[in-house]
Design brief:
This protein is of the alpha/beta class. The chain has 2 domains: 143 residues, Rossmann fold (3-Layer(aba) Sandwich), CATH 3.40.50.720; 304 residues, 2-Layer Sandwich (Dihydrodipicolinate Reductase, domain 2). It has a 9-stranded mixed sheet with strand order 18-17-16-15-9-14-13-10-20, with helices on both faces. A 7-stranded mixed sheet has the order 5-4-3-6-7-8-19, sandwiched between helices. A two-stranded antiparallel sheet has the order 1-2. Strand 7, helix 6 and strand 8 form a beta-alpha-beta unit. Helix 6 runs antiparallel to helix 11 and helix 8 packs across helix 9. The structure holds NADPH dihydro-nicotinamide-adenine-dinucleotide phosphate and 6-O-phosphono-beta-D-glucopyranose (BG6). The site of 6-O-phosphono-beta-D-glucopyranose (BG6) has 4 residues, from loops.
């Protein structure tokens, strides 16, 4: 294979993209968004679909029918969506007008009669836009409405695949615990075959999350050291500077463990920890990811508090602006014990990872926004330079920055130039998009496109979803006061790196968190 050199930065090199890397175009289909008057439709779904349209990745046979109860004319619906995209880079009014002609709105409820009406409207529009019978059914209501909407979809035969395919997209949160997730699963599986079900975790749509697999399995130099013999520990951090915005109602029910750990954090972990699948196919990859969940050491109810630090932001300053504490946010109860930060230690009990701690940390209103995986290698076995240097030689690390400023860094030591024998820490740095000027897809663009092409690799399978809830249950019980011990919740200043207890937790293992550095 020929290799091309990237421009800029250090000497990162990437494999030349073969034609199979070209982004596939979608199949003709209709998209029904149920709950289309909401935030997700405006902020994520329509901008993503418009981007795909602009880049000619949508089939010509395509339209969206938005359904919700809010009284709104079609014009008002289109105008409110235009509002949401028009400040985006590269907005083109002519293209938008062309796209907007494919956006329809149906003011209706979420019962079977309304869904039946939606089906009739879709049939009519399908003829006008030559989409054929394929349809995506996107659940974009609050989760409490999911089961009712699914039943209504089934009763109105929207779920039936009589002529073309029908795929249902289900947003997170998928339940709020194992029991409710199973109940939802039960409803889903009564009306849809597993092949029809697309459970979204938008982190899987991030290029840099997928790239963990490429990094590990398309290179021969990393895999031999990707195990307990060479790796001291792994850190996964998803830090956010944003608070809960206007989502107090949801967040008070969820907290950071449901919001970030049950899904995004464990999904990233599964890519770092999985065994190489024998083929790059969706079921083979998802099988390997599930094996990681199966091998995760259960969080014992008694020891959960030794492996978990919970925090909640207090007032402080983020990016130069003062920020109120979580309990002062609108819609949050004054005595709330909902954690907005968690750090945890976990182990994967298998041959590859036995004894290697994985430290996971995520929180809101932290100093900066960054998501990264740090693979910290073991120190050299013998400090042969110990007579020359006072300090110990630190370990090597690979840092995979998921976002922002996507990059992979290899940290190692080199001699300081000059006559004296001194070491310095240096970084070999690969900027993920440096030297690449092709199309980049954001997470929602990618998952919507995959749903249209029927590729399930980046969606959650039901067994993985149930296992992650089951594994997390003792931590949820503890954090909500149902455990053996009362939950400890440490306050941290907004704009800090989280509670000092999280630092102490790492220090007690003789380790330190790796924060965002360029
Ligand atoms: P919203 O809260 O904005 O709800 C969407 C629409 O659903 C509302 O406009 C409303 O429409 C309808 N709705 C509201 N309450 C109910 C109810 N009790 N029963 C039935 N319908 C109701 O949600 P979002 O658009 O923010 O999110 C949609 C889904 O996606 C949620 O499950 C959310 O958890 C998930 N999600 C959202 C993200 C985001 O960034 N917003 C990110 C990741 C996941 P009307 O009153 O007009 O019928
Ligand atoms: C969502 C959570 O799933 O992910 C939000 O509900 C969080 O609370 C968001 O802010 C983070 O996503 P991203 O892509 O900004 O890292």
């Amino acid at each position: 294979m020929a290799f091309e050199k990237t421009t800029g930065g250090a000497s990162g090199r990437i494999g030349k993209a073969p034609s199979a890397c070209d982004t596939p175009s979608s199949e003709p289909c209709a998209v029904l968004i149920v709950g289309a008057s909401g935030d997700l439709t405006k902020r994520k779904l329509i901008p993503a679909l418009f981007y795909l349209f602009r880049n000619r990745l949508l089939s010509d046979g395509f339209f969206v029918l938005g359904l919700a109860r809010s009284p709104m004319s079609e014009e008002a619906f289109r105008a409110s969506l235009e509002e949401a995209v028009k400040d985006n880079k590269g907005f083109d009014a002519r293209l938008w007008a062309e796209f907007a002609r494919r956006l329809y709105y149906l003011q209706a409820g979420y019962d079977a009669a309304s869904l039946k009406k939606a089906g009739e409207v879709m049939d009519e529009k399908a003829r006008a836009h030559a989409t054929g019978p394929n349809r995506i059914l996107y659940l974009s209501t609050p989760p409490s409405a999911y089961e009712g909407v699914i039943e209504a979809m089934a009763a109105s035969r929207l779920a039936a695949e009589e002529r073309g395919w029908a795929r249902i997209v289900i947003e997170k949160p998928y339940g709020r615990d194992l029991e409710s997730a199973k109940a939802l699963e039960n409803t889903v599986s009564r009306h849809f075959r597993e092949e029809q079900v697309f459970r979204i975790d938008h982190y899987l749509g991030k290029d840099t999350v997928q790239n963990i697999m490429m990094f590990r399995f398309a290179n021969s130099i990393f895999e031999p050291v990707w195990n307990r013999h060479f790796i001291d520990h792994v850190q996964i951090t998803a830090a956010e500077s944003l608070g809960i915005e206007k989502r107090a109602g949801y967040y008070e029910e969820a907290g950071v463990l449901r919001d970030m750990f049950q899904n995004h954090m464990l999904q990233v972990l599964s890519f770092v920890g999985m065994e190489p699948p024998s083929v790059y196919e969706s079921e083979a990859v998802r099988d390997e990811k599930v094996k990681v969940f199966r091998a995760m050491r259960p969080l014992d109810r008694g020891s959960v508090m030794d492996n978990l630090v919970l925090g909640q932001y207090a007032e402080g300053e983020v990016n130069g602006a003062s920020s109120r504490g979580y309990r002062e946010e609108e819609g949050v109860s004054k005595g709330s014990i909902v954690p907005t930060f968690a750090a945890m230690r976990l182990f994967i009990d298998n041959w590859r990872w036995q004894g290697v701690p994985f430290y996971l940390r995520s929180g809101k209103r932290l100093r900066s926004r960054f998501t990264q995986v740090t693979i910290q290698f073991k120190a050299v076995p013998h400090q042969m330079f110990s007579r020359l240097f006072e300090e110990e030689i630190g370990p090597n690390a690979v840092i995979i920055r998921i976002q922002p400023d996507e990059r992979i860094q290899l940290r190692f030591h080199a001699k300081k130039p000059g006559s004296r024998v001194c070491l310095r820490d240096v970084v070999m740095d690969f900027g993920y998009t440096e030297g690449y000027d092709g199309l980049v897809l954001e997470a929602y663009e990618r998952v919507l496109l995959d749903c249209m092409t029927g590729d399930k690799m980046l969606f959650i399978r039901s067994d993985a979803m149930e296992m992650s809830w089951k594994w997390l249950a003792p931590a949820l019980d503890y954090s909500e006061g149902r455990g053996k011990a009362a939950p400890e919740l440490s306050l941290y200043r907004a704009g800090s790196f989280g509670p000092v207890e999280a630092e102490r937790f790492m220090a007690s293992d003789g380790r330190k968190w790796v924060d965002y550095e360029r």
